[in-house]
Design brief:
Length: 437
C-alpha cells in the first residue's frame, strides 16, 4: 500500500494549473499515483554484481566508444550483412589494419585487466603483464575512420533489482560482457536479462499460447527454433543498437521509440485493454496514438515521448523492469509478441522478384522455400536484419547457372538456396524441423 503522506505530497505536486492541464497520455492524477508508487522504499536497489567465483567487483569490458569505432571499421573492411555473431576481418589489401586492430585490442584489454586486478586487490603475476604495444596506427586507417579510442576499460557491473510486490521482482545486470570487438555496444549502463528460454517452458503452456495467437504448426516450429538466438518472452536488452529490445525475438524501439516493440504494445492494448493497463500503463508506460513510446519519469512525473522516453527506459531500471515483468507474467503480452512476430517477420508470404535472362520472375518466397528449416533460415535473417537480402540474388544466380525458368523448378534446389542463405545458425542440422526434399 502507498503511504498516505506520499500520495498527498505527489497529488499536490501534480495538481493541474489554473485553466486545466496540458494534454498527454497520462492525467495528472495518474502521474501523482505513479510517482508515489515508485517512491515507496524497497522498489529499487543496485549493488555490485560480483560476477566471478571470487566475487571481484572490477571487470574488463569493451568501451562504447570503441564499439562505435569498430562499427565504422566493420563497414569499411567487411562484406555487407555480416552476422552480429562474427567479427569483421579485413581483406588482404588492408591486412595491416587488421594486424594493428587485433594487437591494440589485446594490449588495451591487458592494461584494463591490470587495472581491474589492482582495484580487486589481486597480486600481479607474470601472466598479467601487458601485451605488446601495437605501435602507431596505420595512417590510412586513421584518415578513413578517425583516431581509435581505448578498446577496453575496467568497470564495476551492477545488479539492479526492481520489486513490484512480494515474490514479484526483476533483476538485471549492466556493463554487459560482450565480445572484445562487438560492433553494436552502445550503452554501458544498459542491461541484459535473457529471461526464461522458450525451450524451457512447459509444452502445454507453449502450445496454448501458439494456438491462442493464431499460429500454424509450421509457424510455431520455426519460431521456437529461432527464439534461442534472441531470448525468452521476458528477455531484456538495453545495451545495443536496438536501444530497447524485448521478448522472444527482441522487438525493438529503435532510437526514436517507433519500431516493432511499439507494434507489440499496440496489439496488446487493442486485444485486451485491461491487460495492457495492468502490464504497462499502471507503471507509466504507453504508446501515443502515432505509435511512439511514451513514459512517465518515475522520479519527476514528467511525461516523455519518442527518443526522450527511450533514453529514460535505458537509464531508469524501474521502467526497464516493467517489460521483463510483463513478459514473465502476462499471457496477453506473450500472445501479442507472437502475433506481431508472424505479421512482421514471417517470410513465407513475402514477394520475391528474381532476374533471369527471359525477364524478371515474381513469386512468393514459399513458392521456392517450403521446409521449416528453410523458413527458419530466412526468418532468422528477417528478425535480425529486417531484410531477406541477398535471397533474390542467390535465387537468380542459381536459376541462371542451372538454366531454370520458373519458381517451381527453383524449389527443387531449395537445399542449395538455404545453404547459401545460412546466417546465425545452420537450421539444416536441426532435426526437429522439416528439411528440404
Amino acid at each position: 500500500m502507498l503511504s498516505p503522506a506520499i500520495v498527498a505530497a505527489a497529488t499536490l505536486l501534480f495538481s493541474p494549473p489554473p485553466g486545466g492541464r496540458p494534454q498527454g497520455q497520462f492525467s495528472d492524477a495518474e502521474k501523482a499515483t505513479l510517482v508515489a508508487y515508485w517512491a515507496e522504499p524497497g522498489r529499487y536497489t543496485a549493488e555490485p554484481a560480483y560476477l566471478t567465483p571470487k566475487r571481484e567487483p572490477w571487470q574488463v569490458r569493451l568501451t562504447t566508444q570503441a564499439s562505435r569505432w569498430l562499427w565504422d571499421y566493420q563497414k569499411a573492411v567487411a562484406p555487407p550483412l555480416i552476422p552480429p555473431t562474427a567479427d569483421a576481418a579485413a581483406a588482404p589489401d588492408r591486412a595491416s589494419w587488421e594486424t594493428w586492430v587485433a594487437a591494440k585490442v589485446a594490449y588495451d584489454r591487458s592494461i584494463a585487466q591490470a587495472s581491474a586486478d589492482a582495484a580487486n586487490g589481486v597480486q600481479p603475476t607474470r601472466t598479467t603483464t601487458p601485451a605488446p604495444h601495437p605501435g602507431p596506427a596505420p595512417a590510412a586507417m586513421v584518415a578513413a575512420l578517425g583516431n581509435p579510442p581505448p578498446f577496453a576499460s575496467a568497470v564495476t557491473p551492477l545488479r539492479h533489482t526492481v520489486t513490484f510486490g512480494e515474490g514479484d521482482r526483476v533483476q538485471m545486470v549492466d556493463n554487459v560482457a560482450v565480445r572484445p570487438r562487438y560492433a553494436y555496444y552502445r550503452f554501458a549502463t544498459g542491461v541484459m536479462d535473457p529471461g526464461t528460454p522458450v525451450r524451457a517452458m512447459q509444452e502445454a503452456e507453449l502450445a496454448e499460447l501458439f494456438v491462442a495467437a493464431g499460429l500454424s504448426d509450421t509457424e510455431a516450429h520455426v519460431m521456437r527454433a529461432v527464439s534461442p538466438l534472441e531470448g525468452g518472452f521476458d528477455a531484456i536488452n538495453t545495451y545495443d543498437t536496438g536501444y530497447i529490445s524485448i521478448g522472444f525475438i527482441q522487438f525493438i524501439t529503435g532510437e526514436k521509440g517507433d519500431r516493432s516493440l511499439l507494434e507489440v504494445l499496440a496489439d496488446e492494448r487493442s486485444a485486451g485493454p485491461e491487460a495492457f493497463q495492468q502490464d504497462f500503463r499502471a507503471y507509466g508506460i504507453d504508446a501515443s496514438p502515432a505509435g511512439v513510446l511514451t513514459v512517465i519519469d518515475p522520479t519527476t512525473g514528467a511525461e516523455l515521448s519518442g527518443a526522450d522516453a527511450v533514453q529514460k527506459v535505458i537509464d531508469d531500471k524501474r521502467l526497464t523492469a516493467v517489460f521483463g515483468r510483463a513478459g514473465r507474467r502476462s499471457p496477453a503480452f506473450r500472445r501479442s509478441q507472437l502475433r506481431v512476430a508472424k505479421a512482421h517477420y514471417w517470410p513465407g508470404e513475402d514477394v520475391l522478384t528474381v532476374g533471369v535472362p527471359d525477364g524478371p520472375v515474381t513469386c512468393k518466397v514459399s513458392d521456392i522455400v517450403r521446409s521449416e528449416a528453410g523458413l527458419a533460415t530466412l526468418y532468422d535473417r528477417k528478425v535480425n536484419r529486417g531484410t531477406l537480402e541477398p535471397l533474390p540474388a542467390v535465387v537468380g544466380k542459381l536459376m541462371r547457372d542451372k538454366g531454370l525458368t520458373s519458381p517451381a523448378e527453383a524449389a527443387g534446389y531449395e537445399r542449395e538456396i538455404v545453404t547459401a542463405m545460412k546466417y546465425r545458425k545452420d537450421f539444416l542440422a536441426d532435426r526437429t524441423l522439416s528439411q528440404p526434399k
